[in-house]
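Researcher: I'm preparing a figure for a lab meeting and need a structural model of a single chain. I don't have an experimental structure, so a prediction will have to do for now. The sequence is pasted below. Please return the structure as tokens so I can convert it later.
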Amino acid sequence: MIPHTQLIDYFENLAAQHKDINHQAGTHRNNAFLYGDVEMLLEDISGTNSSGYIMMLEAGSGRLDGPDEVNLYDNTDVAFVICKSVKEGDRAAQRITEESCKEIGLQIMKRVQRDRNNQEPEWLMDFDLNNVSYQRV
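Model: Understood. Here is the structure written out token by token.
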């Protein structure tokens, strides 16, 4: 079972460590990590002057699995979005930004896979890259 706060902290740390996101936790200088319902978060940031990349972590859902009360597993689903504001109607900037966001997402997933292979944090051991999908936002 993944402690929810540890999951949020883990992804916030990934946002802080990524050079293009450069989230600075605890400051207002570059608050580039948001947590909650992605659709609501997208509405909240639309029209802002944010010029950098933002990582949004969707509130986790999941399923319970297991043959009995002793062997009960909590399978948590996680979704994140990498986004950046672009001028409306600027198709060239939109295409470039979409590709950049996809690349940043891929780099984040590579880091998750590396952490899983290093068994740190331990709860990441159940991560399965084969269950990962992505879509354009």
